[in-house]
Specification:
By secondary structure, the protein is of the alpha+beta class. The protein contains five helices and four strands.
């Protein structure tokens, strides 16, 4: 039995495909995907639209992530975060506040421990 016969074909969920297609369409018709394994949780597929806006999806494994990239027209895979790709990234308005969580709504912050 060969290794290819032992592996089942990857099935992508319709909602995953639709959401990534929607992202690509909304952000210039093309995007770059950076595949980042995140342990047992799976693989994070970070999307960078042609306009620089970030998006991401998490899938079960690397095979699913690669199949996603192959399935979506206009989506290409980057080997890594390189200078050229990073220079294109322009987070959407409010991205920093969303990532900061409860801290983003604070008006007073304590002094850092190394300040007098």
């Amino acid at each position: 039995m060969s290794a290819q016969a032992a592996t089942a074909p990857v099935q992508l969920s319709g909602s995953l495909v639709d959401s990534v297609k929607g992202f690509v369409a909304e952000h210039g018709g093309s995007a770059t995907a950076v595949l980042q394994p995140i342990g047992r949780a799976g693989v994070r597929v970070t999307l960078v639209g042609s306009d620089g806006v970030l998006g991401d999806r998490v899938v079960d494994d690397l095979a699913t992530a690669k199949e996603l990239v192959e399935t979506i027209d206009g989506l290409t895979e980057a080997d890594e975060w390189d200078r050229e790709l990073i220079s294109v990234v322009t987070p959407r308005k409010g991205h920093w506040a969303k990532m900061a969580g409860w801290v983003a709504r604070q008006t007073r912050f304590p002094k850092a421990r190394n300040e007098n």
